[in-house]
Amino acid sequence: MFLDYHAAADRVNSMEINRLNSEYGLTDQLKFVQGKGAFPFISIQNKSASAIISLYAAQVLSFKPATETEDLLFLSQKTFYEEGRAMRGGVPICWPWFGPNRTGIDMPDHGFARNGLWEVIETTAVSEAETRVKLRFKQNPHRTEYWPQTYILELDISVGKSLSLHLSTYNLGRKAFYITQALHAYFNVGDIHQVAILGLEDTHYLDKLDNGQQKYQSHAVTIPFEVDRIYQDVKHELTITDPVFNRHILVTSNHYKTAVVWNPWRYVSAHIADLEPHDYKRFLCLEAGNVAIDTLEVLPNNSVTLSVNYKILPKTLTR
Question: What is the pTM assigned to this prediction?
Answer without folding.
Answer: 0.93
